[in-house]
C-alpha cells in the first residue's frame, strides 16, 4: 500500500502551519486546514484504518470480532482472508478468481502493488519444504548479527547454558541502549523461532539495568543464532484439525525473586500456532500451584484460538486437549476436594475447572520426558533441547 496514512480522512479539525517553501506571501499568518491525515499525526493510524475498514465492509468483508486486523469474505464454498498490519496487507483464499476480483476492487480506491505469493512479508520469508512451507527470518538474523558486531562469531548449539546463574554483583553494562536494541530485535525473531523464547524472555527481564553478565547471555544467544541461520518454523498440511496444547512450569526458578517460569505450546493439528515463555507475576507456594497458574494461562490462550477458528468456520468441534506433567494440577481440574487447600489460586481454579466441567477442555497427564513445553521454562542440555526443538517443527531448510 503506497502512502497508506495519506489515505485517511480526518473527522477532527486539525490545523497545520504553512510548510516551508509553500507560504502564502499575502497571508503569512494563515494556517492550513487538513482534510487528510499526514505521517506524524496521532490521528493518522486510526484515520487510515477506519477508511480501509469502511471500504472492506462495503465490499462484503466481515470484520473479525476476535482480531480487529482480520477480515474474511465468504461466497459459497470460496473463502478469502485479509490481514492488515499498518500499511502491509496479506490476502489469501481458496479461489484464485475471487482473490483477483478482490484485489481489483481494492485497487480502484487505494494505490496498491500486488507482490504475488507471500515470499517475503514483514521480514518473514516463506519457503517451500516437503509439501508445506518453512517460515524463515534468515535475512533478519543476519542483520541482527551485523548490528551486534558478531557476524564472524563462533556458533553454539544451545541458546542458554544449563549451569549459568545470573548474579547481582556484575558491573553495569556500559551501553544499555545497545542491549535493549539487540534484545528487542531478538523478541521479533521469536515469531518464527520458538526455541529462542525462553532465552529471550530471560534477557527481557533485565532491560532496565543490564550488566556485563547479562550482555554475556545476549552474546550466547547470538552465537546460537549464528549456528542456526537456516532454521525456521515448518507448516504442513494436516489430516486432523484438533487442537492440543502442552504447558509446563519451573517452580521458583528465579534465584532473585523466586518466581516461577511458565510456558506453553498450542498446536492446530501438527502445526505449532502459539507459544509463550514468561515469568509468573506472583510467587507460587508449591509446584502444583505454579503448574496450575500455567494451566490457567494456556486455557485463556486456547479459548481465544477456539473462538477465532469458530468465527472463521475452521473449528473441528472437538474439545482441545491440554497435556500436563503434574498429577496434582491434573487432579485439581476436576476434584473439588483440593479447593480448601488452594484458596490463594481460587480464580484460576474456578476458571479452568468450569472449562473442564463443561467439556470445553480435556486435561490429560503426560510424562515429563514427553512434555514439549519443557523448552519454554528452563535451559536444557543439548540432546534434550535438540529433540524438543524438532518436535516444535523448528527445522533447517536445505541450502
Secondary-structure blueprint:
Blueprint: E1 15-17, E2 31-33, H1 44-58, E3 62-63, E4 70-75, E5 78-85, E6 88-93, H2 96-109, E7 120-121, E8 124-129, E9 132-136, H3 138-147, H4 176-189, H5 197-204, H6 212-227, E10 231-235, E11 243-250, E12 261-268, E13 271-279, H7 287-312, E14 321-324, H8 327-332, H9 346-357, E15 362-365, H10 382-391, E16 394-396
Parallel strand pairs: 11-14, 14-15
Antiparallel strand pairs: 1-2, 3-4, 4-5, 5-6, 7-8, 8-9, 9-10, 10-16, 11-12, 12-13
Helix pairs in contact: 3-4, 4-5, 7-9
What does this structure look like?
- It is a single chain.
- The chain is built from ten helices and 16 strands.
- By secondary structure, the protein is α+β, with helices and mostly antiparallel strands.
- It has three domains: 113 residues, no CATH class; 92 residues, no CATH class; 129 residues, Nucleotidyltransferase, domain 5 (2-Layer Sandwich).
- It has a five-stranded antiparallel β-sheet with strand order 7-8-9-10-16. Strands 13-12-11-14-15 form a five-stranded mixed β-sheet. A four-stranded antiparallel β-sheet has the order 3-4-5-6, covered by helices on one side.
Amino acid at each position: 500500500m503506497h502512502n497508506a496514512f495519506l489515505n485517511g480522512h480526518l473527522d477532527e479539525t486539525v490545523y497545520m502551519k504553512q510548510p516551508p517553501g509553500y507560504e502564502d506571501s499575502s497571508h503569512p499568518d494563515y494556517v492550513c486546514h487538513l482534510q487528510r491525515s499526514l505521517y506524524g499525526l496521532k490521528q493518522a493510524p486510526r484515520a487510515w484504518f477506519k477508511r480501509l475498514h469502511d471500504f472492506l465492509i462495503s465490499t462484503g468483508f466481515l470484520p473479525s470480532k476476535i482480531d480487529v486486523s482480520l477480515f474474511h469474505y465468504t461466497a459459497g464454498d470460496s473463502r478469502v482472508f485479509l490481514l492488515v498490519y499498518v500499511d502491509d496487507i496479506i490476502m489469501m483464499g481458496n479461489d484464485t478468481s475471487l482473490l483477483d476480483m478482490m484485489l481489483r476492487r481494492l485497487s480502484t480506491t487505494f494505490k496498491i502493488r500486488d507482490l504475488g505469493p507471500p515470499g517475503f512479508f514483514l521480514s518473514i520469508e516463506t519457503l517451500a519444504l516437503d509439501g508445506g512451507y518453512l517460515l524463515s527470518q534468515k535475512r533478519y538474523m543476519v542483520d541482527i548479527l551485523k548490528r551486534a558486531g558478531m557476524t564472524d562469531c563462533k556458533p553454539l548449539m544451545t541458546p542458554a547454558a544449563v549451569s549459568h546463574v545470573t548474579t547481582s554483583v556484575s558491573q553495569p553494562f556500559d551501553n544499555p541502549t545497545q542491549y535493549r536494541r539487540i534484545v528487542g530485535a531478538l523478541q521479533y525473531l521469536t515469531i518464527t523461532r520458538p526455541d529462542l523464547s525462553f532465552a529471550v524472555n530471560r534477557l527481557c527481564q533485565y532491560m532496565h539495568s543490564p550488566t556485563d553478565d547479562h550482555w554475556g547471555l545476549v552474546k550466547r544467544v547470538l552465537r546460537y543464532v549464528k549456528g542456526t541461520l537456516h532454521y525456521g518454523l515448518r507448516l504442513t498440511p494436516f489430516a486432523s484439525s484438533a487442537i492440543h496444547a502442552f504447558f509446563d512450569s519451573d517452580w521458583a526458578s528465579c534465584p532473585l525473586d523466586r518466581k516461577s517460569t511458565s510456558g506453553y505450546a498450542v498446536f492446530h493439528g501438527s502445526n505449532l500456532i502459539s507459544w509463550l515463555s514468561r515469568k509468573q507475576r506472583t510467587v507460587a507456594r508449591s509446584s502444583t500451584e505454579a503448574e496450575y497458574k500455567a494451566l490457567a494461562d494456556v486455557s485463556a490462550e486456547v479459548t481465544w484460538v477456539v473462538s477465532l477458528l469458530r468465527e472463521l468456520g475452521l473449528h473441528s468441534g472437538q474439545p482441545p486437549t491440554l497435556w500436563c506433567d503434574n498429577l496434582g494440577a491434573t487432579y485439581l481440574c476436576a476434584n473439588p476436594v483440593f479447593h480448601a487447600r488452594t484458596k490463594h489460586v481460587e480464580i484460576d481454579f474456578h476458571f479452568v475447572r468450569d472449562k473442564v466441567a463443561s467439556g470445553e477442555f480435556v486435561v490429560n497427564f503426560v510424562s515429563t520426558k514427553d512434555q514439549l513445553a519443557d523448552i519454554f521454562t528452563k535451559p536444557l542440555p543439548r540432546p534434550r533441547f535438540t529433540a524438543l526443538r524438532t518436535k516444535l517443527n523448528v527445522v533447517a531448510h536445505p541450502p
